[in-house]
Structure formats: structure tokens, C-alpha cells
Amino acid sequence: MIQIFPTGLRFWIGAGFALALLVACQPAPLLRAASVTPDLLTPNADGHNDVVVIRYALGRNATVSIYFLGADGAPRYFRREQPRPQGEYEVLFNGVVENQLLPDGRYTWVVEARDERETARITGTLTVSGSNPQPLQITGFSVSPPEITPNRDGLSDRATINVCVNRPAQLTVYLEGADGVRYPVPRKEVQRRKPGEAGCHVFDYDAGVDRGQEPPPDGTYTVYAVAEDALGLRDVATGTLTIREGGVPRAEILNGQVEFRSDISSGTGDYIPVSLGGFLYFTLTVHNYGSVPIRTSGPPPGTCYDLDQTFNAPQPGRPEGWAEESGAWRVGIDFDTSLRNYPFRWAVGGPEDLETRIIDGRPYYYLPAGRTALVTGCIRITYTPPRNPLYFWAGLIHEDVEIAPLNNRVDPHRVLIEGP
Ligand SMILES: [Ca+2]
Ligand SMILES: [Ca+2]
To answer: Does the structure show a pLDDT above 80 at 105?
Structure first.
């Protein structure tokens, strides 16, 4: 202090200096401001007051909680003990706390900031009106069957997952393996209800095999159905699905080669002559070059058809014929003037080539993966077609699935039918 000042003045100068020092040392307030605007929330998605804005400013780094106190005095946390650096914050609030919509009522909102020194709070009121008191809920969920064999043999190839929800919501269904990898399950396209509507929705899982993708590895998966509405409310249902013998079936006519011959010629010239009433024979080899067995159905190789018959015609010991079976593979022969696609069909191997499996009490026949089988057959020329000579060719048909381009119209041969 300077000597010329009287004692009293010296005191005041000293006190002012000390106060200035104190102000300089005092930390910024922990919670500088907080507001919720407007003070009315009507969370009914009508575009008016569907959200409010929560703003707050932190003078220092803090742990922040934001909650609402209703008539019962219990805090409903929107943010709970979240570390936040110093700064200004703005967040939209749509009425959802702890995955539930705040019920109608008058609430005290609290923005609370805490650090090691103190806890600061700013409060105000918020009225909630027009809130839907019902939580979003998955009210129905099923996976059927519980086990599938996604290999396109027409047996247990797909699962149906039904999900029902009590309010409009987006539904997501997926499988998750033990390794955490997820496989989406698409919604079935053809159904009356639109995506997002309340009610039951059907999901169809083919393990990707229908699109030629390899299915997930064999094993048991958790099936998740997740419902989420426009407010972000969620509900989850789970089940299980086991995948067994999954894989994309792949087979071909070996080398794309078919041998045709008749009673009177081996067909080395421009065409193969066949006499009316005579037989046209073929021989080819089927190769299962995929990773899963392919299913087949009869008649066995060696079977003879009349030119005016089809595979649906009665056969010896099989009065009902051999109708198409979804997922079965068969060798077919077709010709220029046939009335339907591949009217003559045979199993892709004989009893010695095929494995038998009993499924639901019925035998089914499979050509194992990696195997080949010789297939023969014949056609009795019972009439002279309108076009003569004409082409005959072979195909490998995956019934009700496809005839791969590779397996369609394989090795056409020209045949001349010689009349009497
Ligand atoms: Ca509203
Ligand atoms: Ca199957």
C-alpha cells in the first residue's frame, strides 16, 4: 500500500483488490441455463406440438441428467448421468422416455448437472396431452416350421414368420447366429396389409437359396422381430430357427451331350432315320456338381413313352402317371411339334444311383452331391408329326423352379420319320 493514503482508504483499496482476485478465481457456473419450449407437448404425430426443444448450457464439464417428475414424483429419465463437455446443447424431445411415451399430465422437467464440486438444477413445467397410453407391442409372433432344409427340393425349404403389432410400426425380421452375423428376412410381398400398418404381417425366409445365394451355415439361429414406430418406441420378440442341409442345388447334363439312336440307325449322318412304329433311344449322363443332393422322381431310366403320351399318362404299375413335383429334378426329352414342354421325363438316375430318404412316412429319392448317373429312355414313334424331319433334344428340369439355360434344349438332333 502507498504510504500517503489514510488507513481507511488503504483498507478499501485492499478489499477491492481482494474481491477482484476472488472474482477472477471463481469458476464459471456449472449449469448456466436450461429451457424446454414450448411448454405443451401433444405427441400424436399431427404436426403440432409433437416435439419440444430442450436447451441447456454448461459452464464446465459435467454429468447431465434430464428427467420429468409427474404427479407420482417418480423421475422418468430422458438422459441419465451422461458425461458432457462444457458447451451449449439443444435436443428434440418427442415424449419418449425409457421406451415409453409420457402419459398425459403436468410434469416438472429437471435439467441436472453435476461435477465433483456441486450439483445444479434448473426446472420448469411441461404439459403432455393427447398421448397414446398404449405401449407399442408385438402381440403375436411365430416361426414355422422350427427347422428348414433350404436346398430347393420342395420339402421344408422355407420358414414363415408371422408378426403382429398393436399400432402402426416398421417391422424388421432377421436371423442372428451365435457369431453375431445377421441374415435379413424379407417381408412376403403379396398380402393385403401394407408395410407399417398395425396388425399381422407375414415374412418368408428361403435362406436366400431362391436367389441362388448360399444359405447361412447349418445350425440354430435366433429369429428377431423388431417393431419401431415413428416416435422411436420399440418392441422385440425372439424365437429360433434351425437350418439343416442348406445349399443351392446344381446339376447338368454332362458335357452337354446326348446320344440319340434308332432301331435302324446310330445317327451318324445329317439326321437319324426312325421308322413309324419304331423306337428312338437316348443316353445321357446327369452330373450333380453342387454341394447338396438333388431330389428326383420317376419313372426310372429305361422307361419308354409313346410319342402321343406325356409323363402324366398312366404307366405300368403307376396308373396315375408321374406328375410334376415341386423341387424334383428330371431328365426330359422334347421335340419341335410337342404340345407341352418336355412331355417325356425320367428320374435322374436308377435305384443303384439314388439314395432313399423317408420324410413324413414317404420315400424320396436323391442323387448325392458330386455323383453322376447314366439315364436312358425311349420314345415309340406312334404317328408322323406335321413337321418331318424334326428336332429332338434333351433338358434337365428342376420342376416348378427352373430349367437353367445350361440345361435347356441340350444337343438337338434331327430325326426323320420314315412312313410305311
Ligand atoms: Ca401433436
Ligand atoms: Ca428342403
So the answer is: yes
Contact by Cβ (8 Å): 147, 242: yes
pLDDT in tens, 234-271: 999 999 999 999 999 999 999 999 999 998 877 667 88
Nearest to 299 by CA among 274, 278, 284, 318: 318
Ligand of minimum distance to the alpha carbon of 230: 1
Quote the cell numbers at residue 289: 456338381
Query: Which domains, ranges and CATH numbers included, belong to the chain?
Result: 28-128 (2.60.40.2550), 138-243 (2.60.40.3880), 251-418 (2.70.50)
Q: How far apart are the CA of 132 and the centre of ligand 1, in A? A: 11
SS3 string, 105-135, reads EEEEEEEEEECCCCEEEEEEEEEECCCCCCC
Position 142: which residue type? Answer: S
- What percent of the residues of the chain are helix, what percent strand, and what percent coil, each to the nearest 5? 5, 45, 45
Q: Distance from CA of residue 404 to its chain's centroid?
A: 25
Distance in Å, CA 130 to ligand 1 centroid: 7
Strand 159-165 vs strand 344-347: parallel, antiparallel, or unpaired?
Answer: unpaired
∠150-154-160 over CA atoms, to 5°?
A: 60
Buried b (16+ CB within 10 A) or exposed e, 29-64: ebbbebbbeeeebbbbeeeebbebebebbbbbebbb
Q: In the block, which residue shows the cell 442323387?
A: 367
Using CA atoms, how far apart are residues 6 and 20, in angstroms rounded to an integer?
22
- Check the CA dihedral 346-348-349-354 and report its sign: negative
Percent of the chain with pLDDT over 70: 93
Cell numbers linked to 65: 441428467
Contact criterion met (CB below 8 Å) for 333 and 260: no
- Which residues are found with C-beta within 5 Å of the ion, ligand 2? 149, 151, 153, 155-157
